[in-house]
Amino acid sequence: MRAPADLDRSSQALLVDRLTKVYGDGTTALDGLELRIPAGCFFGLLGPNGAGKTTLIGIVSGLVRAGAGRVFVFGHDAIADLEARLLVGVAPQEVHLLDAFDLSAKAGTKPNRLSGGMRRRLLIARALVHRPRLAMLDEPTAGVDLELRHELWRYLRRLHSQEGLTVLLTTHYIEEAEALCERVAFIRAGRIAAEGTPAELTDRFGGARLEDAYLEAMRA
Amino acid sequence: MSATELEIRQRRGAAALAGRETRRVLSLWTQTILPPVLTATLFLAVFGGALGGRIRHIEGLPYLSFILPGLLVMTVAAQAFANCATSLFQAKNEGYIEDVLTSPLRPRQLVFSYLSGGLLRGLLAALIVAAVGLPFAHEGAQPALAAFALILTGLVFATLGVITGIWAETFDQQAFIANIVITPLALLGGLFYAAQTLGEPWSTLTRLDPLYYLIDATRAGLTGVHQSPAWISLALAGAVAIIALNVTTALIARGWHLKP
Predict the structure, then answer these.
(1) Hey, is the C-beta of A83 within 8 angstroms of any chain B C-beta?
(2) Number of folded domains in chain A?
(3) Are B72 and B150 in contact (CB under 8 A)?
(4) What is the ipTM of this complex?
(5) Is B99 part of the contact surface with chain A (CB cutoff 8 Å)?
(6) What is the mean pLDDT of each run of 10 residues along chain A (220 residues)?
(7) Interface test mutation site (partner A, options B10, B96, B102, max chain A beta carbons within 10 A)
(8) Do A86 and B255 touch (CB under 8 A)?
(9) A108 lies in a domain?
(10) Where are the domains of chain B?
(11) Cα atoms in the 13 Å half-sphere on the side-chain side of A10
């Protein structure tokens, strides 16, 4: 195993080193996954259902037990060092978040009484409430209408540019990754199939758009 | 970030979680405090008042004075257990346990935060029952001894509640432990009778019940009457509490039934 110093951990917002996760039922969710997300980057993770996106986020945030491998958040061991938890999740004040997501009128409403779109907004607001340096958003716009999606994009762009927030975004919407992400990785069967800027990936796989590159990478 | 700053944030987080647990007990008082107080008061009225007149004395004590310590222990044990088990189970069931698991709190801080609600519920209910039954406590009682025994009871059973709440996948499983383990332990722990008045094997079985020692210690504190040395009872309960706390902390650190 490489020494931690060799991994150049500190310059990376997220560094995943040969991470493997096999669930109790024998499902291999991550299979020696390697990933590096530079600090300050808006990073997209694209892959089909069951590719390992949510498992990766779960391990980094402490919701899923890691198998083999190592994970570092801004140089802190995400599995053993509790300080890493503080770096995965910051935020403006709650009131500000309620305003930003047009939830102020619903401040006294219980979450289970909110509409699907409202609940989605609340989940995103909650994810940012600790003002993280690395925000991990697992399909944040799934099931929300177009208007709210664009509103959310604007807010995430602002957080990223003004506050230097590193964002790891998983999504099934290729156009979302194209619109927001500086770098994108395709994940398949628990491994990174390809990684680069949207332009690099499009060039590498010879398609006209990122969608073509994605489909080609999934077929390879 | 310095280690001190992390520690400060962890303490603030633990205080917030403990605050949430205790507020939950107080805001739901019609479900958390009122029912056990009512039940214990009815026990006092029916068994102590109505039937006690026929039983007269046990161990030299009026029956009402004899059963009061056991009722307090039963109240603390059942309520501390129920609160922690329900709170953890709901947190898992409704998904907000994720907020706790992604926090930087140490496992021991999580355990103590959840215990705080159980301890408050058990001890507050017992305090009200004790206020009702105070006229039946004997002169020369040692309330500090009784309070210590009740706090130990709360610690042990709140910890068991945390373990049960983490383990239970359904509400039935949680209720099963409460009904099949906690209630029988309370009723068979010498609450209504003196162990030595029973024949074998019931006398020995009663002495194997950990609640027997806690009831005995509480009775020693409230009435001065006991069947075992109080310090042995408290030492045993203290050892069980320490073991239970360490086991619970280790289970949470490992993510047992919490993390796939």
Answers:
(1) yes
(2) 1
(3) yes
(4) 0.77
(5) yes
(6) 49 91 93 93 92 91 90 90 78 41 63 64 72 85 80 84 87 90 94 93 87 86
(7) B102
(8) no
(9) no
(10) 3-254
(11) 1
